[in-house]
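Data card: per-record layout.
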Amino acid sequence: MRLPIRAVTPKTEFAEIIGWVHEVRDLGGLSFFLIRDRTGIIQVTIPKKKVPAEVLDTARNVSRESVVRVRGRVKAIEKAPGGREIVPEELDIISIAESPLPLDVAEKVPAEMDTRIDSRFLDVRKPRVRAIFFIRSTVTCAAMEFLASRGCINITTPKIVAAATEGGTELFPIAYFEKEAFMNQSPQLYKQMMMAAGFEAVFEIGPIFRAEEHNTIRHLNEATSLDVEVSFADHNDVMDLLEDLIVHVYGCVRETCADQLAELGVDLTVPAKPFPRIPYTEAIDIANRAVEEKLSFGDDLSPAAERAIGDVIGQHYFIVDWPTDIRPYYAMPYPDRPEFCKAFDLMHPRMELSSGAQRIHDHDLLVARIRAKGLSPESFEFYLRTFRYGMPPHAGWGLGIERLVMTMLDLSNIREAVLFPRDRHRLMP
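The structure for this 429-residue chain is written out next.
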């Protein structure tokens, strides 16, 4: 019976493994194969005078990244990966790999990002790259488990919509039978509608689409967002929830992904609570002490400003109390100072991770804010009518999964954190 490579120990008398040929070394009278599956790498040692002739014949025809089956005796050997090796009694080629390979899975020859993504199926065979996606899986599973434990209901909302979430032109239009439709920018309107439905607390992990003409190391045109909405809550309540989620997810990764973190050379520190909460005006002042291009009230934060503030704060933090005019129409203004709203961003020292707010739940105020943004309330009628029939106070946020993984693992490019990136220039694979 086939064993995962990690399960093969020096105490195992015989083992049968199936995996990919990671490396081949021929030293004359002795050959070494490194065989890899998703659990690890094991050395197969072939002493040419001590193995069956059929094994030698097969070994001569094996190319790197071919899939092979090996059955043989397990021996303890200190210098081998994992402290063990297999001396084969049987060696079969299950699937031969062509040569040369599009890229070097052993990473002795580095490849550019575009080359890697062009052959992503090979790129993710690399133990280092596979570790990223093992950790990403742990992040999403831990987040779902945490939110379910807090009473949140997992929902699914449409990705093909008739109206923009926030207006504007950053939309991908599509032909939808006789109508024009768009790829959704966010589940925002639909998760708010579920507050009117009495669900009280919901979450969704799904794709979002932004037709922004970026070409940077931290933007994608299709990203994965973790969205949360909670009734009978204000912005402080959902900031507390987001803070707890980040700490929980980091803790799960640190506890369960030790091998993957070691593969990546990451010594993961769980963020300390509470996260500082910095008013927007103070954040502007901090940035202006460090950046050349000064910011004024009402400006959004540039990447340079975010980095400057992050250098000062030195940990995850919130920027709170944003100017109402630069936040979406559904952000709740403070009654006593309506020029500010109950909106926030969760920041990593490198970049923004999440954006949220307490929402307007009063129908007439919401209509007024939509008009103030130069939008037509008629375009949002399907959404607005839910506010006429008992909408509770509510608040929520959206968290970018790729950015969370990117900053957690100190990756240099957001494309490292998504299997098949979609950006301004890439539609395949």
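Known properties of this structure: The chain is about 30% helix and 30% strand. The two ends are 35 Å apart (CA to CA).

See the next section for split statistics.
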